[in-house]
Predict the structure.
Amino acid sequence: TRNGNKLYVHIMTPESTDITLPMSAKVKKAVTFDGRKPVKFTQNRKENTVILHLEEIPKDIDYIVELETK
């Protein structure tokens, strides 16, 4: 889901704490939607990917991370 410069990533059934997303836009910050806690991420501009580094595998059915893009 997108709203302006914010992209909401819905993570449904993760098997890892690292989630790779295809993305060419530059990400300024990533936070959990629910608690607004920062989420670490790595961006690879050459491969057009962003890897979210979650602290643990989410137990929620629909875990949402908000990405703010430039």
Observations:
- The two ends are 16 Å apart (CA to CA).
- The first strand starts at residue 2 and ends at 3.
- Strands lie at 2-3, 6-11, 18-22, 27-32, 40-44, 49-53, 63-69.
